[in-house]
Write a structure and sequence with these properties.
By secondary structure, the chain is α/β, with parallel strands linked by helices. The protein has helices spanning 127-136, 155-162, 188-194, 222-225; strands at 29-33, 36-40, 45-46, 48-52, 65-68, 75-76, 81-83, 88-96, 99-108, 114-117, 141-144, 173-174, 206-210, 213-217. Strands 2-9-8-5 form a four-stranded mixed sheet, with no helix packed on it. A three-stranded antiparallel sheet has the order 3-7-6, with no helix packed on it. The radius of gyration is 36 Å and the shape is rod-shaped.
């Protein structure tokens, strides 16, 4: 049996860390702002996420992971920037240390402007010039409701009456044919003037998509296309 020598000091414990690093408080919640957003297709929206402690105070320096509930509607990067937005709605989530919050982003369809008239061009009246002046100040898609060039839908009437007025909007115009347009060569000047936008000359009806709308243009001249009861 060994005994400590007389006068020896007992061994001492190591000194505690004089400046221990405090344990950071855990993330108690995450808050995403704005909580909801409405944007148009192809736009983008910037979201922000705050990490909070149990007292609701901000916690700095905490990593946040972003995710999208439907990347086909909108995707999000590591900064909370939401891009690639398509029609619909999507939840964008921010998470940190097991806590999470989400923002609902709704994607709006831009408003479509659809403007037009019928009984349009007549070289003996100023009305087609006046309505064409109105169209100059209205954006969007132009439609016509038949009887585009009076009196008989001739080449000369489309050239001299319609074209100098409504004709300057032809590139954005989807027409329909009226009985006066059929008075010359079974409507051939009408179909030649408007081209592909007038549909098949043998039918005179067609359809197209405008934003969220499906537009169906009917030919009301039933005797010209063989449409009858039943």
């Amino acid at each position: 049996m060994l005994a400590a020598a007389c006068g020896d000091a007992p061994p001492t414990a190591p000194d505690p860390d004089p400046d221990p690093t405090p344990t950071p408080p855990p993330v108690a919640s995450v808050a995403v702002t704005p909580g909801t957003a409405s944007v148009e297709i192809a736009a983008q929206v910037q979201l922000a996420a705050s990490t909070l402690d149990s007292a609701g105070q901000p916690l700095a320096g905490r990593a946040v992971a972003w995710s999208s509930s439907d990347p086909g509607v909108g995707s999000v990067d590591s900064t909370g920037l939401v891009t690639g937005l398509a029609r619909g709605s999507v939840y964008i989530k921010a998470s940190s240390e097991g806590q999470a919050d989400s923002a609902l982003v709704g994607v709006l369809i831009p408003a479509e402007v659809f403007v037009g008239a019928g009984d349009i061009a007549d070289c003996t009246t100023p009305d087609d010039s006046l309505t064409a002046d109105l169209l100059d100040g209205i954006a969007g898609t132009v439609f016509t409701l038949g009887d585009n060039a009076y009196e008989d839908g001739t080449v000369a009437e489309f050239t001299n009456c319609y074209d100098p007025t409504w004709g300057r909007h032809k590139a954005r115009t989807f027409p329909s044919i009226g009985n006066h347009d059929y008075k010359t060569s079974n409507g051939q000047p009408y179909f030649d003037y408007f081209g592909a936008n007038a549909g098949d000359p043998g039918l005179g009806y067609y359809s197209y998509v405008l934003g969220a709308w499906k537009i169906i243009v009917l030919n009301s001249n039933d005797t010209k296309v063989g449409v009858g009861p039943g």
